């Protein structure tokens, strides 16, 4: 859908701008006949070919423009010059826009349309879906200048820190995606540790962590909590910590932490190191009955849809679709999944059902449009 829209937009700019700017669309000129006087008072009729006629017309137009410019300078008039200058500036801007569209379009083709999630109408803002080696989905947002690639793009993503962009005039969007994938690879260990903390410890804050967050507040019992700040560049190193709770317990934990911090071994699992330094059995997350467990949507990352009249009857509803792949089992709002599938060019539609692939495991999924289940 996005691709078709950009195709039509690109076709318009490609056809209209160069013709107006370069004036390459010319009418066919018929041979020109004229009478040339001779020295004896007589004359003869000569005929010019189409090519010669064209050259004559062009030279006449050039002479006419030169004469007009000279007269304007002589009499102080500048309206014609201003008009031509304005038109020239406008055509140049249109030509730049056309070249920009063609370039960005071709570079999206190189990456693959299936990875494009969103794009602005002017193509200056693009969002790509990138998977890391662990199958996690990441959205990279790119902002382009009209003079791209002379000016490098700006990047934003849900990561703890962004990478230093390597860019030159010969760089393309696929190089940007490749650099982002290299950056994701560096962060895989960090995210694996954060996932283990969320899965095996009693995390009280944040309730809905983003991939950029590098802290966790953990319940360690006796109404005492520890705030861990993990170094995203060196996640296996000893984290910074802050204890919260009753003063006697906190003072004791601080003393134990300082005494045992040298026992932290980077090659050991993070949770094992944490339990050894604290000299305590870490609490696991409280059991939640499966039928009462609220799952976050894998697309909007929220448990519930917003309360909105446009979402009726799904307004405020929880996730209602789960991937059938047992190794994935990712939950979605059917509304979000339907919007996602509609934006992917490989999605098929049969009656009121979209058929496509899961955003996380790429296994087949099918969701009803405006499903009321």
Task: Please provide a brief summary of the model.
With 373 residues, the chain is an alpha+beta fold. It is 38% helix and 19% strand. A hairpin with a 2-residue loop joins strand 8 and strand 9.
What does this structure look like?
Residues 64-84 have a biased composition (Polar residues). Residues 293-369 form the FANCL C-terminal domain. Residues 62-84 are annotated as: Disordered. GO terms for molecular function: ubiquitin protein ligase activity. Residues 99-187, 189-283 form the FANCL UBC-like domain. This protein is of the alpha+beta class. The chain has 4 domains: 2-107, no CATH class; 109-163 and 172-186, Ubiquitin Conjugating Enzyme, CATH 3.10.110.10; 190-278, Roll (Ubiquitin Conjugating Enzyme); 290-368, Herpes Virus-1 (2-Layer Sandwich). The chain is built from 7 helices and 15 strands. It has helices at 2-22, 50-75, 79-111, 173-200, 247-260, 270-278, 334-342; strands at 32-37, 43-48, 116-119, 125-131, 137-143, 154-157, 203-205, 215-221, 224-229, 240-244, 321-322, 331-332, 348-350, 353-357, 364-368. The strands form 5 sheets. It has a 4-stranded antiparallel sheet with strand order 3-4-5-6, with helices on one face. Strands 7-8-9-10 form a 4-stranded antiparallel sheet, covered by helices on one side. A hairpin with a 5-residue loop joins strand 3 (116-119) and strand 4. Helix 1 (2-22) packs antiparallel against helix 3. The longest helix has 33 residues, at 79-111. It starts with a helix and ends in a 5-residue tail after the last strand. The model is unreliable at 12-48, 59-71 and 289-293 (pLDDT under 50).
